[in-house]
Amino acid sequence: MRLTTKFSAFVTLLTGLTIFVTLIGCSLSFYNAVQYKYVSRVQAAATAIDTHLVTHDIVSLTPQIDELMIASDIVRVDLLQGERRVYSHSRARGYRPAGTSDMYRELVVSLVKHPGMSLRLVYQDPMGNYFHSLITTAPLTLAIGFIVLILFLSVRWLQRQLSGQQLLEIRSTRILNGERGANVRGSVYEWPARTSSALDVLLSEIQFAHEQRSRLDTLIRSYAAQDTKTGLGNRLFFDNQLATLLEDQEKVGVHGVVMMIRLPDFNLLRDSMGGNQAEEQMFMLINLLSTFIMRYPGSLLARYHRSDFAVLLPHRTLKEAESIAGQLLKAVDALPTNKMLDRDDMIHIGICAWRSGQSTEQVMEHAEAAARNASLQGGNSWAIYDDTLPEKGRGNVRWRTLIEQMLNRGGPRLYQKPAVTREGRVHHRELMCRIYDGKEEVSSAEYMPMVLQFGLSEEYDRLQISRLITLLGYWPDENLAMQLTVESLIRPRFQRWLRDTLMQCEKSQRNRIIIELAEADVCQHISRLQPVLRLVNALGVRVAVTQAGLTLVSTSWIKALNVELLQAASESGQKH
């Protein structure tokens, strides 16, 4: 219960108790005052009878007694001598309104002028029918209603006055829950205003410090993996990426292409053209290469040595590499002419296909040999190291047919790989997906880029989640982890479906689900992932980030997202 709600309830309770006690006290005072007044009137009538008995007989005083009884609303008069009744007189019953009740009170008065004798007077209770009358209770009812109305309006006014403090408390709760950024900025309605402003200033400073720390972290990491002059990946980073692919931990026969792009020697250009023109020409060529290679998902461009640039194209074929090289030569031909630089003899490309099991040194030696052959040919050209290797690639039509058939059959083949702790205990089992194309199995790393390219990621992930929930019933004691695409998670339609699907599961099942996300995609869509990951964590599902350290990104997402598991890339594990 919030502070404002507690305070409002406390004030309402105190006010209500005060009104109740005041009402009861006033009612008792009114009741006692009326009773005291009637007792005094009845005692006065008894005194008058006592005085008349000095000179008159009790029987002869009957007419006077009737008058006194009517005036004092006395019903019966008994003259007692000790305990014995000497005389009794009752008033004739007159007209009484319908619905009135006979409630009587009795008073015994000792006669001062006749010692040993007393009068017992029975009179109508003045309060007996008071609360049965609408006219008499109407003012009291109106007063109570007015008090309740004033109390209701007062509580509403108090809540409006404290609404700013309630907004501040809600924002504080969101901050404690880990929310940051523009979503937790204060409003002008928060109170106290200075506290709200101070909180905004502190949040701004924390955000600024967090951004500075992220920049510094990225800068430190980039020094180890980036070329300082061009901003591209360096030779060490490229070799690590290639070594990771060549290891082929899933043993599915990973393949791809390496392209060695040889540009004019920048040092010679600087001597012949001057420093400024050489720098301008160099960055123009680098921007052309970077923009061109970014079109291909999963590709990597790095400065390998001086004016040699290496391109890594996983899961690509020599035929595709030749097409890429041809398009790149056409793009170079479209560059503006330069008198000091021969545009027709500017770029030479060496192409080398690789397979899992080869060494990094062997692949790069073949790529450099192909680049030398292209240079010897003269003019802008490319050369292939060995074009006799069998092709393993597929065209877009074959890929789409294969993926749609896989979805229609109910999904890819699933394999499980246990993740073991230092103590030898199985923490969870990672579900790995593969497609069988009729000849061999294709790993998810090879076909997932095509799933994303064809826009089938949401359908694919829905199918995978449904299969994962089914497997939880077969393995009641195991934690299961499955990779999802960030592209699906950031879509509102998929988020609603995921929420409804998870809520239909038992809590014990949700606690055994681990969703794996790639670090590069997480950092790219971190702001859009925060709401859906909070929802997933609230439902009991855990989140793991894989391929950590594979790309040059900031580690700020570790604090921004509630991630339970972190899986480092293999080359990062070798380094550390």
TrEMBL record:
Keyword annotations of the record: Lipoprotein, Membrane, Transmembrane, Transmembrane helix
A GO MF label: cyclic-guanylate-specific phosphodiesterase activity
Keyword Ligase in record: no
Pfam families noted in UniProt: EAL, GAPES4, GGDEF
InterPro entries registered for this protein in UniProt: Cyclic-di-GMP_PDE-like, EAL_dom, EAL_sf, GAPES4, GGDEF_dom, Nucleotide_cyclase, Rev_trsase/Diguanyl_cyclase
Residues spanning the membrane: 7-31, 130-153
Positions of the GGDEF domain: 254-387
Superkingdom: Bacteria
Domain EAL residue range list: 396-576
Complex formation: Interacts with FlhD in the FlhC(2)FlhD(4) heterohexamer, inhibiting its ability to activate transcription.
Family to which this protein belongs: Belongs to the YdiV family.
Protein name as catalogued: Anti-FlhC(2)FlhD(4) factor YdiV
